[in-house]
Write a structure and sequence with these properties.
Blueprint (H helix, E strand, L loop, with lengths): L4 H11 L3 H5 L23 E7 L3 E3 L3 E11 L10 E8 L7 H16 L5 E7 L3 E8 L5 H12 L9 H14 L6 E8 L9 H10 L3 E6 L6 H11 E5 L7 H13 L1 E12 L4 E6 L3 E3 L5 E9 L3 E10 L4 E14 L5 E13 L2 H6 L3 H24 L3 H22 L2 H20 L1 H18 L6
Parallel strand pairs: 2-16, 4-5, 4-7, 7-8, 8-9
Antiparallel strand pairs: 1-3, 3-14, 5-6, 10-13, 10-15, 11-14, 12-13, 15-16
Helix pairs in contact: 1-8, 3-4, 3-8, 5-6, 6-7, 10-11, 10-12, 10-13, 11-12, 12-13
Length: 460
């Protein structure tokens, strides 16, 4: 287990969307040990919520505005690690032939080795159909069961087609068998994301999440379908990992297990209730459902200690004058400690004015930085669409304009984060232009993963 720790750190850096760590060697970190976590104050809940509008003063004419909902898990260094139920669903179809299959098997074996006493694990594989290889509870008497699971993984070889629907169905049944409300329940899908039939997959991931089993996806090989794997993670309320080099896979597994052990609350939900003519236009980065009278419910997944789930919402505001409420935010999640559902409510109000200077000066840096990260994410995705369509000049113009905006906004908002984003985008553009077509496979997937994480916050 100790040998996995350095890889876990690297996996967490990559999973958080650090494009530089994917395309360039990471810089050495400081040698001093990190400070000890600060215990939560007495009576603190499992999470805190910060909400805000992009500007405290909005134009009297109304129009577009942004709201930010930041859910931060309260880390408790004295808390006991929550036991987990982990289901591995491994693609063994013909397209996994060669190193992809070898790396998936090695990573799955590393995952088994990383589990702690009391954890439960199931293993499922799929090709034209799916096989449930059984389950085990880690402990003194689990030797034979774990040996059988290791043997089943070791005997896998690539063959036939890719019935991912069967994989998720049988995997979901296996996950249900070892499910426990007091545990962290997660399904990990290892695949190149190239199923025979795609319709119905997202719905299955969503249905599993509604039952308390979240889905994390790990794309294998440089030809994997990153759009599908990211969509399944979205609907499954789990994580999505970009795998550049095969030797990163074991570390990513370790990182996922490490993140699961830091969960402080499960099944987080955010209800947005518009007020006084406000309309919710879009929830960015998270699945949502719109009900009567425009109320929107967002499925926010798990809450991780010391990390932030960062939700950006586009609004359309009615014209007006004076000060009024524009949005009510109700956040709830099931605390790991004690199991009770905790709720926090916040109201967002704005003052409406014809003074354009006052509107500009009222910008809230924390919200505006999130807005600019979203704009940068859009630029990453759109530029890559243009590059993939062989419109290199248009893609370069897109990235150059985005860098100018990031530079300008980093100065206006005093944000080192935006300055760093500008630097990463500049390095990516340089590598893209110098690397040519052979570099595009890795570059496109790295940029899309970067954009995915930018839209979600440090918890992703």
């Amino acid at each position: 287990m100790k040998a996995l720790i350095p890889y876990a750190i690297l996996g967490l850096i990559g999973a958080a969307g650090a494009l530089g760590s994917t395309l360039r060697a990471p810089s050495p970190g400081p040698t001093d040990p990190p400070p000890a976590p600060t215990p939560p104050p007495p009576g603190a809940g499992a999470f805190r919520v910060e909400v805000g509008l992009d500007r405290a003063i909005q134009s009297a004419g109304g129009g577009e505005a942004f709201a930010r909902v930041a859910i931060e898990g309260v880390a408790d260094p004295n808390a006991q690690r929550t036991p987990m139920s982990l289901t591995l669903v491994i693609d063994r179809s013909g397209s996994m032939e060669g190193r992809k299959m070898d790396d998936a098997k090695r990573a799955a074996l590393e995952a088994l080795a990383a589990l702690a006493p009391g954890d439960r694990v199931s293993v499922v594989s799929f090709d034209d159909g799916a096989i449930d290889h059984g389950s085990a509870t880690i402990g003194e008497r689990s030797g034979a069961e774990l040996a059988a699971l290791r043997a089943a993984i070791g005997e896998l070889f690539a063959r036939s087609g890719t019935d991912m629907i069967a994989g998720l169905d049988v995997g979901g049944s296996a996950a249900t068998r070892i499910y426990d409300q007091g545990r962290v329940n997660r399904l990990l899908l290892l695949s190149d994301g190239r199923p025979n039939v795609e319709p119905g997959l997202r719905e299955r991931a969503s249905a599993l999440a509604a039952r308390g089993v979240l889905t994390t996806t790990l794309g294998l090989g440089q030809d994997y379908n990153e759009d599908l794997m990211a969509a399944l993670a979205d609907q499954g309320r789990g994580h999505y990992y970009f795998v550049d080099r095969p030797d990163e896979l074991a570390g990513i597994f370790a990182a996922e297990l490490s993140s699961l052990s830091s969960i402080v609350a499960k099944e987080a939900s955010v209800e947005l209730v518009p007020a006084h003519g406000t309309r919710i236009v879009e929830v960015i980065g998270f699945p949502s459902h719109t009900a009567a009278k425009g109320t929107v419910t967002i499925a926010a997944g798990d809450v991780y200690g010391g990390r932030v789930t960062d939700i950006l919402v586009r609004l359309a505001l009615d014209s007006g004058a004076g000060t009024r409420d524009v949005l009510a935010v109700h956040t709830s999640a099931n605390a790991i400690a004690g199991g009770a559902r905790e709720r926090i409510s916040n109201d967002l109000a704005a003052t409406f004015s014809n003074d354009a200077v006052a509107v500009t000066r009222s910008a809230a840096p924390g919200v505006m930085v999130k807005v600019e990260k979203w704009r940068a994410a859009q630029a990453w995705v759109e530029a890559n669409r243009l590059f993939d369509a062989n419109d290199v000049d248009a893609g370069n113009r897109m990235l150059s304009a985005a860098q100018v905006r990031l530079e300008t906004q980093s100065q206006a908002l005093g944000s080192d984060e935006l300055k760093a984003e500008q630097g990463e985008m500049a390095r990516y553009q340089k590598d893209n232009n110098e690397g040519g077509a052979g570099w595009r496979g890795v570059g496109t997937r790295a940029a899309k993963k970067k954009a995915w994480s930018l839209n979600k916050g440090s918890a992703y």
